[in-house]
Amino acid sequence: MAKYLLLKHYRGGPAPVNDVPMDRWTPEEISAHMQYMHDFATRLEGTGEFVDGQALAPEGTFVRYDGEGRPPVTDGPFAETKDLIAGWMVIDVDSYERALELAGELSAAPGAGGKPLHEWLEVRPFLTAPPTITE
Question: Which family does it belong to (predicted)?
Answer without folding.
Answer: Belongs to the YciI family.
